[in-house]
Amino acid sequence: MTEEETIYEEAVCCHCEGLGCRYCDGKGKVLVARPAKKCRHCHGECCIYCGYTGWEGVKGKYE
User: Fold this and answer.
1) How many CA atoms lie within 13 Å of 27's alpha carbon, on the beta-carbon side?
2) Distance between CA 54 and CA 32 in Å, rounded?
3) Is 62 contained in some domain?
4) 28 lies in a domain?
5) Cα separation of 30 and 35, whole Å?
6) Which residue of 4, 18, 32, 42 has the lowest C-beta tally within 10 Å?
7) CA–CA distance, 22 with 13 (Å, rounded to integer)
8) What does the pLDDT read at residue 4?
9) What is residue 5's predicted lDDT score, i.e. its pLDDT?
10) In angstroms, rounded to a whole number, what is the distance separating the alpha carbons of residues 4 and 26?
11) Domain assignment of residue 22, yes or no
């Protein structure tokens, strides 16, 4: 396993429910820090704190 695979795991984007949208770059999934947890601010309903993905610890675009 690579370092990225040990730190992050894939989770289905809550905004598009896996269909693909601008917040998950059309993939339907996002990389989130292990263990995957729903956003504590919106509880998975999508807000500015989770980047509209519904998850905490979303990997940044330039990381």
Assistant:
1) 11
2) 10
3) no
4) yes
5) 13
6) 4
7) 10
8) 61
9) 64
10) 20
11) yes
